[in-house]
Write a structure and sequence with these properties.
- By secondary structure, this protein is an alpha/beta fold.
- The protein has a single domain (about 1-150), classed as D-tyrosyl-trna(Tyr) Deacylase, Chain: A.
- About 25% of the residues lie in helices and about 35% in strands.
- It contains three helices and eight strands, in the order βββαβββαββα.
- It has helices spanning about 40-50, 100-115, 145-150; strands at about 1-15, 20-25, 25-30, 55, 60-65, 70-75, 120-125, 130-145.
- Strands 1, 2, 3, 6, 7 and 8 form a six-stranded mixed β-sheet that branches.
- The longest helix has 18 residues, at about 100-115.
- The protein is globular and about 45 Å long.
- It starts with a strand and ends with a helix.
- The relative contact order is 0.28.
Length: about 160
């Protein structure tokens, strides 16, 4: 799984001109599911997204997590994060999980966070054409790929 997380002042998603998910201060998480991803990876990534210390403390250091600031989370599915752009001029999406499997793990990721943490979690609409509005605070943006941990054995 790949997550692009951005510290935001606010973020929202529109589908067909209607807002379907909206948050204030917190994290916008664009989430891509790769072939072979597991629930174990989804749990690890969910914990990482929520607990990563990317918000500034009183000394201006990134020392606070989403939990610490009582922030909100917007999760938007984005299979294009799995694109391979190395060869040719058209991205290849062969590494992306099939839609049914991707949706299952996307929903598992969201549900896991909702059940484990006392934070507001909003989503986009899986497989819909969405307009995503992101007011990036910083800008602060991180890319987290579960393959980096699960292939190399990095510690949490």
């Amino acid at each position: 799984m790949v997550a692009v997380i951005q510290r935001v002042r606010r973020s929202y998603v529109e589908v067909d001109g209607k807002v379907v998910g909206s948050i204030g201060r917190g994290i916008n998480c664009l989430l891509g599911v790769e072939k072979g991803d597991t629930e174990e990876e989804a749990k690890w990534l969910a914990q990482k997204v929520v607990e990563l210390r990317i918000f500034e403390d009183q000394q201006g250091k990134m020392n606070l997590s989403l939990l610490d600031i009582r922030g909100e989370l917007l999760v938007v599915s984005q299979f294009t994060l799995l694109a391979n752009c190395i060869k040719g001029r058209r991205p290849s999406f062969t590494n992306a999980a099939p839609p049914d499997e991707a949706e299952r793990l996307y929903r598992f990721f969201v549900d896991y966070i909702r059940e484990r943490y006392d934070i507001k979690v909003e989503t986009g609409v899986f497989k819909a054409m969405m307009l995503v509005y992101i007011e990036n605070d910083g800008p602060v943006t991180f890319v987290i790929n579960t393959r980096d941990k699960f292939k190399k054995g990095d510690e949490r």
